[in-house]
Amino acid sequence: MTDSGAEGKGFIDESWAKSQNLQFRPLKRPFEIEVFDGRPAESGQITHYVRAGLRIADHYQKNMLFYVTRLASYPIVLGMPWLKQHDPQVGFAAHTFTFNSPYCQKFCNTPAKPTKIKALQTVPKKFLRQLEQNIPQSLRRKDILPITLQAVRLYSRRTRCRFFTVTLEQIDRALQNKSEDLRLPEELREFQDVFSPKEAEKLPPHRAGDHHIELIPGGKLPFGPLYGMSREELTALREWLDENLRKGFIRPSSSPVASPVLFVKKPGGGLRFCVDYRALNNITVKDRYPLPLIKESLNNLSGMKYFSRIDIVSAFNNLRIEKGQEYLTAFRTRFGLYESLVMPFGLTGAPATFQRYINDALREHLDIFCTAYLDDILIYSRTREEHIEHLKLVLQRLRSAGLFANPSKCEFLVKETKFLGLIVGQEGIRMDPAKVETVKNWKTPTCLTDVQAFIGFGNFYRRFIRDFSKLTAPLNRLTNKDVPFIWDDTCEKAFVRLKEAFITAPILRPFDWTKDVILETDASDYVSAGVLSQYDNEGRLHPVAFFSKKHTATECNYEIYDKELMAIIRCFEEWRPELEGAPSPIRVITDHKNLEYFTTTKLLNRRQARWSEFLSRFNFQITYRPGKQGVKPDALTRRSEDLPKEGDERLAHQSQVVLKKENWQLPPLKVQRARIRQPHRQGSIPIEEPILSLELPEDISRLLDQAYKTDEDLQSILQA
């Protein structure tokens, strides 16, 4: 099939290419393709290509490149670049192509004979309709789907399509009042109330599962400072207070306890309200109610064919603070003192309280056809009919427990889903590829420093790799003195084999919820990294997952303290399912000693306060270790492919003048002297005699003023 809208020269169906025994070759840079309305194709990235001859009647082109993908109806699609190159004459009435261009006469056709072919079939009229039906289920569930301008032009040719203009505000307002039943399978419409956002905003009643705060005897009740706020923050604070007073989630308080509040910027814009409960958490008895052993729960998934995942909306706010203890949650604001009636985020025992409540709600069904980990519920069944019945039982228990689900984050009747960092499906359970992506995508070293970083990373695991010294010999040779850096096939093979060894057994182990956890983190100027590890039965430390991420241009300007803390935050975010609710404290190892005192620091900036609120969900202890002993995470922060190159915005914004030029407008020295000579104001502190020695002869003053005017660096700042 020819497609004038395709930007690639040629595409070939993966299955058909295999049936023709064509050789697949990897692309150096995989890429995505888009369908007619601008969405990424369901077939995913194009990672391989083939070369083959293409014959159309007597028209033959040898050694043509085809990108390998999954095509719906045709084994080969020829795009606009191919049509431009061959420039065929199209006979629309006769459905013919004639190849008679100068290019075809020289390279493709039988000598002196133009090739004329007749189309075997035309594209059916319903072809575009088939493309529409191929939209993924997750997109078809949405009520409003933005489309590209190209798609608008395409649809506008159809008489049955109508167009009208609306604003984003009107769309948001319409969606707020839109029934959520369209996102539910037909069989679950009776549980529409469980997915109602309005119901989730009502104050829950007191129940047996209310959150209890047990204080350590003799602990000093906290009374935090009142932080200053900008006009924007005060406006956001008033709106937050008004909204939560309307819901009944908070009320005015006269408590002797007060925790400080502040706002932090959301990654996508806007402000988020935070209460710093660290002082209260420090005098609270820790609730050791266990989170479920996921390994045991997932052992029941063998033979299951259908899966659904339910996400509980505003999980903690579905529970009340135990009656009479609301005063402990009080927080100070510019507009008064308030206390929370619902369980807020940031309290140390909140995860345990909610896990206890969800376990009680689903107790009859746990590990039979569902498992619950905090606000995530997984339902699994062998048949569709059985699965619908299981879903109804779970939703009925959620309704009885007064819990509500977020339909946009739920999945129903799927063959595979992601649950707590694992991929579960009909084929069994496998590790999320993202856990080893950092090492798997480690690019080929291009200099001696890259080789040294890679070998340093691998040395820690040498005892687990058979013939480690032989494997690394080609790489070690490059580190010898006076040896030129020549990366040959031997080095490449050793590099690939070592990477494969790092991410497979016996080195890499699946996470075991019964074992202690070691989290090693590090940060350089441009990269954050971490290694999650656990000890085996013989006391040997094995990695569970690797992580690294480049800093943004803004993050590159953070102080080193915040960069090192950000590395810890990112690792906890990446491995939240494994680390949240750990039975024993997670040992966090860092090479920045001041981080040991983070949990007791009294004054935090807004960024640190946001991170502190997030970390309150975990049981951990930060330990200092000198940087030279932290080889594993340090190596992940020093790969050359992660370091900024020339033109990188991470370099462009590191050196900036942050003062306005008027701040640098210095008056001449004679004006400064005149100010010194002015009589002191009544009550002011007299200037000590040594300062009067600034009086300078006129010629020296004139020379200094002239020096200011001729100093290029100073003038460039003043003129910036």
From TrEMBL:
Subcellular location: Mitochondrion
Enzyme Commission code(s) on record: 2.7.7.49
Native organism taxonomy: Eukaryota, Fungi, Dikarya, Ascomycota, Pezizomycotina
PANTHER family linked: PROTEIN CBG26694 (PTHR37984), PROTEIN NYNRIN-LIKE (PTHR37984:SF5)
Keyword Nuclease annotated: yes
A cellular component term, taken from the record's GO annotations: mitochondrion
Domain Reverse transcriptase: 245-424
Cell inner membrane keyword on record: no
Enzyme kind, highest EC tier: transferase
SUPFAM superfamilies, sorted: DNA/RNA polymerases
Superkingdom: Eukaryota
Name this polypeptide is given: RNA-directed DNA polymerase
One GO molecular-function entry: hydrolase activity
Keywords (A to Z) from UniProt: Endonuclease, Hydrolase, Mitochondrion, Nuclease, Nucleotidyltransferase, RNA-directed DNA polymerase, Transferase
Pfam families listed in its UniProt record: RT_RNaseH, RVT_1
